[in-house]
Write a structure and sequence with these properties.
- The chain has helices spanning about 1-15, 25-35, 60-75, 90-95, 155-170, 180-190, 200-210, 235-255, 265-270, 275-280, 295-300, 305-315; strands at about 40, 50, 60, 80-85, 100, 120, 125, 130-135, 150-155, 175-180, 195-200, 215-220, 225-230, 230-235.
- With about 350 residues, it is α/β, with parallel strands linked by helices.
- The protein folds into two domains: about 15-125 and about 230-330, 3-Layer(aba) Sandwich (D-Maltodextrin-Binding Protein, domain 2); about 130-225, D-Maltodextrin-Binding Protein, domain 2.
- It has a five-stranded mixed sheet with strand order 10-9-11-8-12. It has a three-stranded parallel sheet with strand order 4-1-5.
- A hairpin with a 5-residue loop joins strand 2 and strand 3 (about 60).
- The chain binds glutathione (GSH).
- Glutathione binds next to helix 5, strand 11 and strand 13.
Length: about 350
């Protein structure tokens, strides 16, 4: 009783502060179902991950993860609203309950996954930090950056990992921090900084937006591990499982050759037991997740399997032209792997 009282006191204090980091199991799904949409935190605008298109729709792999959650929960991938957040705002937005899920090129680290009332639900993209420099600087390796002025985004692992790298290699640098990546890119262009650093997936996109992209080169080093994935509030295992298994479903669908084009036909006619379970033709594996029987069919039909979503947003046919690399499936040279539906 005493313990219950003190827990209640903490929860009341947290509520008064607008902090709902003591999320209760079931609370998020209930709230999402009541309001009729998923509120999804994305970046301020990062090509390939989440960026408004000409019509103002947010497009990218991070946005599609949220659409997939909406497809699983509602059978309708359009039931999602986006909040554009910069790096500094993102965690408070999730802790306070302003967003239901944060899907914003956010690196999974131990401190973010333990001390902040938050928990990572998986990895949508394995990334790492790199450097973009003006060719005029005449350097071909990060080890030659001693004394450089470096543009960095505030509130990121980039700030921390770049500092470690320079210290570990006995190099000096002057950081200039900004709240948005556009400001960093402008400063690289104006010559205020010699180097722009960020997750490598973004360096190519940022270079493509400069007035003279061919004046700049991405250095070969990747100096950190940046596994990017969706984050939810700790304490609501039900919602955590829904986001986690949405991602697993997209990976498993790719592994089994189930695509947005063939998923409906496969759901009806498949003879493969794994596919039958995943698509709801055999058993009800959505039930314990509090999802409809056809949750995976809806994810894949409306949003796509992992490979389709990767290619559409980041792959060869896009301005980013990113190889699957580490993000290929485990049985195809990469490390993307999902436990089975059964
Ligand atoms: N993955 C790193 C970096 C995330 C980050 O915020 N990167 C910048 C530079 S690529 C960004 O997303 N800028 C876009 C924005 O301003 O919303 C982290 O989780 O701290």
């Amino acid at each position: 009783m005493k313990m219950l009282k003190s827990t209640l006191a903490v929860m009341t204090a947290a509520a008064a502060l607008g902090i709902s980091s003591f999320a209760q199991a079931g609370a998020t799904l209930d709230a999402v179902q009541k309001k009729g949409f998923v509120q999804c935190g994305v970046s301020d605008g990062l090509p390939g991950f989440s960026v408004p298109d000409a019509k103002g729709n947010i497009v990218g792999i991070d946005a599609d993860v949220c659409r997939a959650v909406a497809a699983a929960v509602f059978g309708d991938a359009t039931k999602v609203k986006f909040s554009q957040l910069n790096a500094k705002e993102r965690f408070t937005a999730l802790q306070s309950g302003e967003v239901d899920v944060l899907s914003r090129n956010t690196t999974w680290t131990s401190s973010r996954d333990s001390g902040m009332g938050l928990v990572f639900a998986g990895v949508t993209y394995y990334d790492g930090i790199g450097f973009l420099v003006n060719k005029k600087l005449g350097v071909s390796s990060a080890k030659e950056l001693d004394g450089a002025t470096i543009c960095i985004q505030a509130g990121t692992t980039t700030e921390l990992n770049v500092s470690d790298y320079f210290r570990a290699n006995g190099l000096k640098y002057t950081p200039i921090t900004f709240d948005t990546s556009d400001e960093s890119a402008k400063s690289l262009e104006s010559g205020r900084c010699d180097v722009l650093t960020s997750d490598k997936s973004q360096l190519y996109a940022q270079r493509s937006k400069l007035a003279a992209p061919t004046d700049y080169v991405v250095l070969p080093e990747t100096i950190s591990k940046e596994p990017l994935g969706p984050v939810v509030r700790k304490g609501d295992e039900e919602w955590f499982s829904i986001v986690k298994w949405t991602l697993f479903a997209m990976l498993n669908a790719e592994e089994m050759g189930i695509t947005s084009k063939n998923v409906e036909a496969e759901a009806k006619a498949t003879k493969n037991p794994d596919v039958a379970r995943m698509l709801g033709a055999d058993g009800e594996y959505g039930k314990d997740l509090k999802l409809p029987k056809d949750w995976v069919v809806q994810i894949v039909k409306q949003v796509g399997n992992y490979g389709e979503v990767f290619e559409k947003n980041l792959g060869k046919g896009t301005p980013l032209q990113i190889d699957r690399g580490l993000n290929a499936l485990w049985n195809n040279g990469g490390i993307q792997y999902a436990p089975p539906v059964r």
